[in-house]
Amino acid sequence: MLMHLTGEMIHGQTCSTTSSSDPCYNYTILDEYWRDIANYYYSSGNDSLVEWRGWYRLYLGGLSAQMSEWCVSTTHCGGETGLSLSGSHPRLQDGVVTREVVGTNDWVWMWSSSSCGSYKSNSIRVKACPGDYYVYELVKPNTSIPRPMYCAVAFQNISSDPCYNYKSLDRPWRANNESGTYICDYSFSWNGWYRFFYRGMNIQLPETCVSSYRCNTQIPLWLNGPHPQTEDGVVIREVCGGTYWTQCCDYKTRPIRVKACPGNYYVYELVKPNSWCAGYCTNISTISQPISTISPAITTRTNNTLSKLLKLLNCFFFFTCNLPETCVSIYRCNTQVPLWLNGPHPRTEDGVVIREVCGGTYGTQCCDYKPRPIRVKACPGNYYVYELVKPNSWCAGYCTNYDPCINYNTLNDSWRNILSYGYIYGSSAKYDDTGVNWDGWYRLFLNGLSAQMPEWCVSYLTCGGFSSLWLAGSHPRLEDGVVTRDIYGSYFEQCSYYRSDPIQVKACPGNYYVYKFTRPDLSIPSPAYLRFTTPSVDPCYNYNSLDETWRATNYSYNSSNIRCDYSQGWYRLFYNGQSAQMPESCVNQYMCGTYIPMWLNGSHPRLEDGVVTRQVCGSGWSGCCTYRSFPIQVKACPGNYYVYEFVSPVFCGAYCADVTRLSAASSTTAATPTAFITPTVITTGVRDHCSELSCSEDEHCGEKNGVYGCLCNTNHSRWHSESFDFSETCESSSGSMSVSRCQLFEAGFSADILHLNDPSCKGTVRNGRVEFHFDNNEHICGTNLVANGTHFIYDNFILGTPRTEGLISREKILKLSFSCAYPQTQTLSMNVEINPLESIVHKSLPAGEGRYRVRMIPYQDNEFTRPFTGSLDAELNQEMHVEVRVEGVDSRQFALVIDTCWATPVKDPDYSLRWDLIVQECPNPNDDTVELLQNGVSTSSRFSFRMFIFTANSTKLYLHCAVQLCLLSSNHCSVNCNSGQHWRKRRSLDFHDSSSISMGPLMLSEGNTDKWVKDKVKVSKASSLCASLMVLFVFMMSFLILF
Known about the structure:
- The protein is mostly beta strands.
- Strands 15, 16, 17, 18, 19, 20, 21, 22 and 23 form a nine-stranded mixed beta sheet that branches. Strands 41, 42, 43, 44, 45, 46, 47, 48 and 49 form a nine-stranded mixed beta sheet that branches.
């Protein structure tokens, strides 16, 4: 016999101490999970067959337990009749007491108004022990009771005060004045302590009978006993429910623990009701205003002020925020008078500008209040800086806004998947989005994949909650900006039973959406926002075949063999070897071999539509779309067939095959050739293999390694066959490239498996060539921009990978790498006179190569809005304004930097007589008339100087500038010329070969008062005032086949 002093469980052993006569220290442990009163399943247990000897201590799963002293209507405790104490447990000072034992059987409960105590068993002795546990002298129950079993109940240890550690349940629909729906609490996952609210106010469970069908459930649950006082601590209370008869407490579910808390509220340890559609009620007459309380040891609320401050700091230091340019409503931005910019933000080339600031006050005008103006500047990297000043008066504050496509929270909860339909697998609604502190914008993910909200009906108990929330309307397009969409919630098969608060949605570059989620309407039971993903591989070549004749729309069901679909994945339909598709119109009930035939509620997509989502209807007794199953994804495939992502429906139904629209089936083989990647499918049927191929004039249809494709004609040009006749065109920050389809096929590569670095950027077949394109706007395609010391290089590659899903593969991988490179700097002198509208210096370039150009333009005004257009009389000391601009490069990534500008009396930029205007990116310190207005911040640079002449009897000036391109991401494109240390070293990775651009001549006018000026200065009438530079876009390409 094992000695056991602490009372901890040693299963199946007898525990004793030296006090051998005291049952508190000499007992046998009984730990059998089926004795739990929560167990309402019938079983074969029978305690009348057990040889009971002595005293016992109860456990459940290692947790100290006790016999139930509360009737539970539907419990079986591992047998048929649950046995409980008919009376309360003794106290320590009571010693050993005798208690009656009663039995409850739900078969009796179903036909009687009082099942509790319907069976009387043999009495037992009970004793309360130090350490807060009980021991029982169990005996054989009355043998006339059907399979009796002693029941146990265990309560979790309370590690912290539940008055400060609870979950809030703000459920107005639980009030006893509500009805109309039947929400069952066995559908929810209960765990821990809860506090009830009614739209933010305190409310409590009723203590008196509630009529059936109130509280939006069938059996309303109420507390059979008074609430405790604060000094009572945690108490246990019986829970009753009224059923279809007149008795208020016909149904008794598991007891719960209750505690009264400081602040005049209660917390409840709620548990899942045993069975039937029952739900906890709240008493509308007990509503009271909540009183603020503070936990003595635990903080249960977020510091909102600190949270907002951190968000504001994030906005300024980590995100791209700026002042709004439109009216902001009063009291927004946490101030009385929100301040906004009354005018557009400047461009980078505008430099520092002054903008008026407005604020709306108590009147109807947006700009009632105007504080002091501020200065604003656009900076490289797509952000702004502001010289903020203290507002003159009023309680005013500067507002900010930000792009939600950049500033969003991520939501990556796997249970939000539309395929997480809990009620099919017996799970419960565990999540409730009314309890989430929604704050800002959110982007959805599923297992790391980008996801979006569904735009169609989804059944209840999906996505972790009870009511599934979906978007009532289509997602916006990029150009739509932020839109507002209604939100609907489902109730059983009723799609739009609930209507929640609308949310804002925005489409973002990169093919994703962001959502400004808000707290759903409290009248909706446990709502949860949904999401789904799109496929990561092409389902046209990764599907399962379904060739089952019973799916036909003309096949009636067999009552002895009802078909129900439970599969999930991508499928292609066949009928006796012929390619089939789902019907797009109503199918009669009991067809397709099932109770509920399912058809596509919408048309099939076209090839160019890609993967689309379609609603699925099930025909029933009341109409064609009596049932709505989960939506499915559909794709049209080359070869005139469709694939479907079938999911297990919410009822016994089957996906139908339309026998009125059959076509010849594509034939493929599962034996993959060594040098060609084939779909991993097996189908049957006969077809013309070449009918679906559009071979060009230089190709012909043929077979290679058991697969048909376009082969090259014998007279086909095979230049660069080792690179598949690769051809490219580079333009600015974009590129197009193509390869020969027939050469790829002959080498064992299918055109449809090729893509750029981004798998979504697939090729397009045109005239026998597979073409690809990328640019630096909305079609980046995984292109990388790097600098190697002499060039800026755009890198990408064409990749073809096998469609195999096994552990190993011996298929070849194709990789064609290519680059488009910019020489970062060039030198060019303009040899014509000034005319800013026409004169451009051209350089001939080989066909197909990229280009950009640099222009130098003089302006008449310091705002750079009026370029010189005709003859010019420039007077001595007249201020000249010059802009140097690069065109044809990505302004988001490059800046133009003037390194040096100088003047010569002749056209030769290398002439020995020269005067420096700009030296190493800063004005010549020996010429205080030079002002560098903008340099290294955008694709244009600006400076000014005052007109002069060379004293060596010359009246003409020619301007020359050495310019360079710089990567804005380096943050080293501009220099502070006022720091006193502006002579800096050349940056090898940011600046490269120098380039010069020249313009002139500039000549003095006769009106000059200086007597030594003899010649009239005129602007020549050449074809342009701007110099232009065409720079080659160097192309580099290599290819690689990996084995």
